[in-house]
Amino acid sequence: MTIILTPYWSDGVQKLKIAPQAPAKPKHGLTPPVLEDSIHAQRCLAQLRSKDKSIEKYIYLSALKDQDPEMFYRLCLEHMSEFTPIIYTPTVGDACLQYSHIYRRPEGLFISIKDKGKIRDVIRNWPKLDEARISVVTDGSRILGLGDLGVNGMPISIGKLSLYVAGAGIRPSSTIPICLDFGTNNEKFLEDPLYLGLRKPRLTGPEMTEFMDEFMHEMSVAFPKLLIQFEDFSTDNAFLYLERYRNKYPLFNDDIQGTGAVVLSGFMNAAQIACQASGNPLSSHRILFFGAGSAGVGVAMQLMSFFTLNGLSVQEARERIWLIDSQGLVFDGRGRLAEHKKYFSRKDYHGPPITDILDIIDYVQPTALLGLSTIPGAFSPAVIQAMAALNPRPIIFPLSNPVRLSECSFQEAVENTDGQVLFASGSPFPEMKYGNTTLYPGQGNNMYIFPGLGLGAILARVTSVTDSMVEASSLGLANSLTKEEHSMGLLYPQIKRIREISAHIAKEVIRASQKAGVDRSTELRTMTDTELLKFINNKMWNP
Ligand SMILES: NC(=O)C1=CN([C@@H]2O[C@H](COP(=O)(O)OP(=O)(O)OC[C@H]3O[C@@H](n4cnc5c(N)ncnc54)[C@H](O)[C@@H]3O)[C@@H](O)[C@H]2O)C=CC1
Ligand SMILES: CC(=O)C(=O)O
Ligand SMILES: [Mg+2]
User: Fold this and answer.
1) Which among 58, 73, 88, 448 is annotated as catalytic?
2) Distance between Cα 496 and ligand 3 center (Å)
3) Tell me, what's the ipTM?
4) Distance between CA atoms of 100 and 358, rounded to whole angstroms?
5) Residues 6+ apart with CB under 8 A from 166
6) CA–CA distance, 264 with 279 (Å, rounded to integer)
7) Domains of the chain (ranges, CATH numbers)
8) How far apart are CA 442 and CA 253, in angstroms?
9) Is CB count within 10 Å lower at the N or C end of the chain?
10) Is the entire prediction scored with pTM above 0.90?
């Protein structure tokens, strides 16, 4: 279907295609004589692989998704581990940085601060109002670890939704990528004549909140069956708008909750292995966070359940967690702290500020070091060696995205721990040979969680997304590893099994929603687990 929409930043009228429709069979003579489907799949793959630069691959796949969505998603599913680094992190980071330059055609919905007071009219331009089920909404203010990218953040919403389709079988026409344009503080973009967004400093504060209130209300009226995923809002607004709307509308924040869930899951598997090696109980883990933004604090909050599930009280669980931010160890005596850091601020440290990560490691004696700081190389060889000196199997998760902002590489972690590291990173690293063994890095990325969490929430038609549903998604992921994956030392399942994993997570999420009483699809309550899993699988769209 092709409809005409005029983006607010465009002078001309452009065609927006929303896909996919069942392709009409071309009339005889309008395609080459021999266009066989499986051969064409090989042709598309060969074209993709012929490109040297990952951004060229991204552009090629964007065009393929537009022109032949069935083929795009089919190849995506068949080659998940090859496609995800292109349509998602790390390449989607480059696509965002260059969006205003590589832009080809409109995709998704752009709503700017200029639309305040008439957001309803803009939303109503969306062509498939009654089909919408999931929207990823960003304001472009903190895209991955790349900072304020303004409307150049749109590819992150698009990329996440492609993973909803590929990974959880959400129908492509049920997805809405949205980028809200509040301006940008990115000087380079403001000066760039090709920049596609409003050329004004970013708006925050009460006016932004008024806009958000109107936006959320109009979304709920226009799309009564829609789940919203907030993505890459800067930390202050990420917490603000999650709390403001989470009990009013079905929504979750991926950076806080999705990341929390995925890291809890990998941590549970790593902690088991680490404790087998050390002989210590699971509850004895001590977790040091490098980075205390929405992702760091979101993960810290979720990791509380690791300890409470292992018998500690909430207070004891909190005492197992330490935060480092740009000014060093976060503790009460340090002075004024941002609201979101207060809960984990240490009350038991009374010395002078400690800023050096090695000194902090010496003081905390952590079993696990988690990076959500956007500082590449922060886990230097000396830092990794210090973790290895304290632990037979140190847990080191450099989780910042994209790859070039990772706190360390897999190779550095392996070489400085004599291969003993339990590793997960935000963006993918290749497996590596160490001695006679092959070691596999984990990818601790919320892409393992949001497709299944979203699918479960959509099918249960929840009124809100509860903490128990997020925790259920995490436990569902942790328990989804096969014997073979455990024997390979993996912390996360292989990404090629994403559909199976998402279905399993969705089942757990639906059950949790039923327990919490937020489900509206009450007919699912009486199904057995086997029936529910079958129902979920039948609902998945297949290219
Ligand atoms: N693996 C995953 O699934 C996810 C990864 N992330 C990544 O997490 C990173 C952080 O995201 P946010 O928390 O939203 O960003 P943020 O900018 O709010 O937080 C960064 C934190 O790092 C701290 N920091 C900065 N420089 C530092 C330094 N030199 N030393 C110590 N601490 C320093 C800051 O004080 C702040 O607490 C990003 O790279 C993002 O891509 C975010 C969500 C999901
Ligand atoms: C993965 C993700 O959501 C982020 O880096 O922001
Ligand atoms: Mg994000």
Assistant:
1) 88
2) 22
3) 0.99
4) 41
5) 73, 76, 77, 80, 83, 498
6) 21
7) 2-249 (3.40.50.10380), 258-444 (3.40.50.720), 449-539 (3.40.50.10380)
8) 23
9) N
10) yes
